[in-house]
Amino acid sequence: MDSPVPATLARAPARPQARAGEEACADTRQDAPAEAEPPPRRPAAFYSSVFAQIEEIGWKQLVSATGDGVSCLTFRVVDEPGRMHLLEITLPMGYPESPPSISADVPYLPKIHWSKNSRLKDVICQFQAHLKILQEFWNTMDEIDKVLWIVDPTKPSYAMSHRRIALGDDCYILLQVDARKPNSLPECRFLGTDGKLDQLIINWRKNRKKWDTKKKFHENLAAVLDFALPSPPSVGDKAKDDEQADCGICYAKHLPVDDELGAHSGCATDYMCENPSCSRAFHSVCLRDWLRSITTTRQGKWEMCEGGVEKSDTDALEASFQAKKIGRSRIYTLVLWRKWLGGRSAFLGG
Length: 350
Prior knowledge:
Blueprint: H1 7-11, H2 14-31, H3 44-57, E1 62-66, E2 72-78, E3 84-90, E4 101-103, H4 120-133, H5 135-147, E5 150-152, E6 162-168, E7 171-176, E8 187-191, H6 198-207, H7 217-225, H8 235-245, E9 271-272, E10 281-282, H9 284-293, E11 299-302, E12 307-310, H10 313-322, E13 337-341, E14 344-347
């Protein structure tokens, strides 16, 4: 009978495996990423100090507090005419030795003067002083919005200093008002169809030196352009016009302001379906691209009134864009809207 294997010899093969396992575990621990250090915590004195400073301003003025509770504070600030503003104050880790940063819906922010003894109420006071400076700018913008026909932005914020004003006949002027000198001559850009803006551009260049900062903004604009500026439409008419003027392809009233669109930049719809039951408007650019996208048939079909337009009219439309003597807004007669009746097409509105 064979003698039994000593216990020491029986356990011997397991040792290299154990070492290999230990080495593998060690390698795994080395490869594992180090645990991220927790973010630095503010001292308790910081919170008690900030709470006391909020108390000085008034808890009713505090709209929100985010970022560990007090790192980002939003206060409600009302200016003298009654406009409500939201002032966001962010407290850095080094606060109060490091100054806070602010954010608000204003055309430009004030420079905050800060010392190690300053408090949050000092920031509020400096912002209120800044709001007083901006009153002339906002009064000017309110005058523009009330008297002139504004097409964009429809709901301007307090920070916006631009307005796109309708001049009629698919022509517009894009104004950029200087928030620091709101009654001065603004920057402008004319948008519209060829031939219709030429005289307005000539008048602007000739009369711009006549701009009088003592006059009202809209009076100056009318005098420099030597043009009777149209009044804004009534609420009912505006809603009806907006519904009818949205492009049936891109569903927007105005094209974006983009240099790549050339003379069409910022323009409103300039084509309309001649079917009285439809009368849907289009941008000529959108209509042209839509016609070009049709590859399976010679005729595009408009689903709103079951009308159609011949693809062959695309060539006429393209040629009309090159015709300098023809206004683009009057070239709609080159596009023939047709309605299917018993397999035949009939001219709409003919």
